[in-house]
Design brief:
- With about 200 residues, the protein is of the alpha/beta class.
- It has a single domain, classed as Dihydrofolate Reductase, subunit A.
- Helix content is about 25%, strand content about 25%.
- Strands 4-3-2-5-1-6-8-7 form an 8-stranded mixed sheet.
- Helix 1 packs parallel to helix 3.
- The longest helix is centred in the first third of the chain and has 12 residues.
- The N and C termini lie far apart (about 35 Å).
- GO terms for molecular function: 5-amino-6-(5-phosphoribosylamino)uracil reductase activity.
- This is Dihydrofolate reductase.
- InterPro entries: DHFR-like_dom_sf, RibDG_C, Riboflavin_Biosynth_HTPR.
């Protein structure tokens, strides 16, 4: 399977709380919900189609808990999010979850890198990672990401957790696809292409 990340971010790189404020997951963060006012029918359909393409999902612990508590308890199977997330295999990287309650979930603990490489070696289309910023950074450092889609919303939040750290590994990226929606949202898909060249 090809490992593809999909991240909704602001122009200043914030990925935290795109859907709304959540005191349990984002205590003290009051700038959540920045994505929803900018979404339109076309961009929502694009994101929904992305979910439909998944053969399986890989999550970090935090995003898994958030998604399980929200998408995992819904039964509107006309929704591409509900139908995809509740009918496809899910994997969560965690050393603390022992009994996942969300159906068809496998916990990856111990040597997570070897487990992810084994998943990638399986036949199939896409192993998708949504949210899960800490996991995405970890996967990038180990060169496990095949493609990265950034859905950039035209807003500067000015605070919150960013996808990329202030200091980290550098990567060159090859642009595979770019699309702009009426509200100014831009979706760009990249392939990591080794180290960048510097002038």
């Amino acid at each position: 399977m090809k490992l593809i990340t999909n991240t909704q971010i602001t122009v200043d790189g914030v990925m935290q709380a795109n859907g709304g404020n959540n005191p349990e997951f984002d205590p003290g963060f009051e700038r959540g919900g920045w994505a929803l006012p900018l979404g339109d029918e076309e961009s929502t359909a694009y994101i929904g189609d992305f979910y439909r393409r998944a053969d399986a999902f890989l999550f970090g612990r935090r995003t898994y808990d958030l998604f399980a508590g929200y998408w995992g308890v819904q039964d509107d199977f006309d929704s591409p999010f509900v139908s995809s997330l509740n009918t496809r295999p899910k994997f969560v990287a965690s050393n603390t979850i022992t009994d996942p309650q969300w159906a068809d979930t496998t916990v990856l603990s111990g040597d997570v890198e070897a487990a992810v490489r084994e998943l990638k070696a399986r036949p199939g289309g896409e192993l998708q990672v949504h949210g899960s910023g800490q996991l995405i950074r970890w996967l990038l450092e180990r060169e496990l990401v095949d493609e990265m889609t950034l859905i950039v919303f035209p807003v500067i939040v000015g605070a919150g957790t960013r996808l990329f750290p202030d200091e980290g590994t550098d990567f060159a990226l090859e642009l595979l696809e770019s699309r702009t929606f009426a509200t100014g949202i831009m979706a760009q898909t990249f392939r990591p292409a080794g180290r960048p060249q510097y002038a």
